[in-house]
Amino acid sequence: MTGAAKRIVLETLGWVLLVLGVAAIFLPGPGLLGIFAGLALLSQQYEWAERRVEPVRVRALLGAAEGVETWPRIIASCLGAVVLAGLGVLWIMKPPAPDWWGFADSWWLPGGVWTGVTQVASAGIAMALIVYSYRRFHGNPDAVEKLRRAKDGDKEPSPAP
User: Fold this and answer.
1) Integer Cα distance of 12 and 83 in angstroms
2) Residue 28: predicted pLDDT
């Protein structure tokens, strides 16, 4: 692959990941992770993206750390992922609209099988991120404090493992 072709592929992938990450903030999915990945790729070409990579990385890791600080948060996160997976399976199975459904049948579970597939995939990613966050941050207040200081700009964080 030539240098120009590689640049075009990486830049396109960066923009796609960035847009999907922004969409995933509002839809089921790991939004900050997508934004971080997109910015990381775009930072190779654009100074504006390079300036934003580290703050987004720190905020994403801090969100992950805060999500596993207490057992109620861990349980709620896991429950949310299980519900999302269950809804995905429902979308994949696409049962007929129930009698109480007051709208057109075409409005029952819109989007088809691929909506369900993306919901199940998002639930899998969420569970993997919960496990990662738990292993890295739960019971490790020093790591969380280091991220909080980095977010406030007091100290530069070390690179992610």
Assistant:
1) 33
2) 61
